[in-house]
Amino acid sequence: MEDMDEPLESFGVKGADEQVTVGLSERVCEAKLLFERAVAQLTSEDVSVDNLLPGARTLRQVLQSQVDDDKDDGDGAADMVIGDLNKILGKHLRRDESPELQKEVVWALSNILSDQKEKNRCKWLTQLGILTGGIVPDLVRLLRSPDRDVVSNAMWCLMNIAGSCVTGRDKCWRSSIVQPLLDMKTDALPHQDLETYANLLSNLVRGPKKDSISEGDMQPVVEAAARFLQHTNENVARDACWTLVHAADGCMPDYVELVSRMGIETTLGELLEVKKLVEPALLTLGNLATGTDHQTQRVIDSGVLPRVMGVLTSREGPGQEKNQRMIKASCWMLSNIAAGTQAQVRQLLDQCEGLVGALVGIASEEDVDERVLKEAFHVLGNLAVSSADEGVAAVVNGKALPLVVKFLLDPDALPSPTRPAKNAVHAFCVDIIGAVELNHAKYKQELKKLAEDDSQCAEFFLKQGLRLFDE
Question: Is 367 exposed, middle or buried (0-12, 13-18, 19+ CB in 10 A)?
């Protein structure tokens, strides 16, 4: 492939001693003029390769220069493009007699798609004709091109289109993208192309409304992702793991079962030791634990729970935000186990020693993220209302009640700034207290001790009518 930083010679780049703003302005004007000339060449009646190739190359160079300028807050490549790209570029994707022309056209499309400034990408791609014409099917067809550069850029374009919105994703599926991907010899793909391949797989199953994708179509994508989980390239393994997250997301039983059949629970547990892979591994395990009792049991039997507990209690991480995400994902995964059978709740408590105390510590932190707080109480709530007596006992003995009572008496004590999060935590607190009241005779001594140690708890228990002390 040509150097992506190839200069556009006709630009006449200004010297470093001239003002940057003036230089950029002149470059934009000249670029627009060159762009218009290139478009005229590509849409002219002369369809010979000799005429089209220079026009496609100029267009690609202009767009590449705009991508570079955008890094300096200039206009992006997409700012120059007005009109239907099917008429400007799309029809030339079918010129198989000239791989060089195809390469320039696909490269130009990749420069347009690399512009990330447009927020409503679905509307933008539709306006450009990318989601309505034949560009996507032609890009899919080019995945079988004998030219490596054509394949590389076509795959990169499809990755961006599939990841843009549900419409873009479904357009790729309707264009029969999976088989050409499966037919690729991934072992022979260059490092960067393999990362694009894995990212494309992830984008193909990402987002809502996956009911339009049949289980038969989804299966080979899931199988391919499962094979990549232990790839030595962590970026490839990460995107493979995100593919499994997205595939099992949304509580669709057939897709959860599809991922569960891969038998990857133990491997996912091992990935919890790799910082870049912790979050998607946790989310995949959490999705699997939302399934049937059998699927949840497979997660437990893989031995991952102590490792998840290790993530929950760890304060190490490359950044506070990422650390909060890891804790939230850990809590969410454990809450799904806590919603299981009596035996599963017992296994959770046995394998995650000190779980309730850790959750109370997390929820008590002043700077706790509201999403983490909600999920921490989700675990406590599920433990309390579980059919296992050990669940309520763990909540009582783990000193969770003072915090629960505090939040029930004073909702404003919650660090959460948003009403939905406060409502969710309040609902979990109500569930916890309800379970304790229902079983208070079994834990009378523990509740009595709490009342003696915490006047707020004593007042609350009295108000709830719990007679803990002899008259």
Answer: exposed
The two three-digit tokens of residue 10, written as one number: 């006709």
CA distance 280 to 108: 33
Rounded CA gap, 377 and 382, in Å? Answer: 8
The CB-side HSE value for 181 (13 A sphere, CA atoms) comes to 31
Per residue in 439-465, pLDDT (tens digit) is 877 877 888 888 888 888 888 888 777
Helices H / strands E in the chain, number of each? 26, 0
Cβ contact 157:139 at 8 Å: yes
DSSP state of 13: P
pLDDT digits (tens, 9 = 90+) for 339-349: 999 999 999 99
For the whole model, what pTM was predicted?
0.85
In angstroms, rounded to a whole number, what is the distance separating the alpha carbons of residues 355 and 359?
Answer: 6
- Amino acid identity for residue 375 in this structure: E
Alpha helix (H) ranges present in 117-208?
A: 121-127, 135-141, 148-162, 166-174, 178-182, 191-204
